[in-house]
C-alpha cells in the first residue's frame, strides 16, 4: 500500500469515527436540546457523511493514486462532506440557518465527485 493510500485511509478512519461519535452524541446527548427540525438536519448530515465515508474507503483501496478522476472524486467527496454535513451539523447545534447557504455547495461537490468517479472509471492510463 502506498503512502498516498495510507493518508486517504487515515482520513476515512477519522471520518468514520466522527460520524459514529456524532450520531451517538446527537442521539443520546443532544436529543433533549434539539428540536425536530434540528434532529432531522443532524440525521441527514450523518447519513450523507457515512455513505461518502464508505465511498472514500472504496476509492482509497483502489488505484486512486494513478487516476486523476478518482483523485478528483475523493477530494470532491471530502470537501462536499465537510461543507454539506458540516453546515447541517452546525445549523442543528447553533440554530443559525444562515449556514444553509453552504449546504448546497457541499451537495454540488458531492455530485461532482460522483461524476468524477464516472469519468475516472474510463481512464486507462496513469495521469
From TrEMBL:
Keyword field contains Transmembrane: yes
Keywords: Membrane, Transmembrane, Transmembrane helix
Top-rank taxon, per record: Bacteria
Chief location: membrane
Entry's localization field: Membrane
Keyword Transmembrane appears in the UniProt entry: yes
Bilayer topology annotation: Multi-pass membrane protein
InterPro entries, per database record: DUF423 (IPR006696)
TM region(s), chain numbering: 42-60, 72-93, 99-122
One Pfam family linked to the record: DUF423
Family: Belongs to the UPF0382 family.
Name of the molecule in the record: UPF0382 membrane protein
Native organism: Marinospirillum insulare
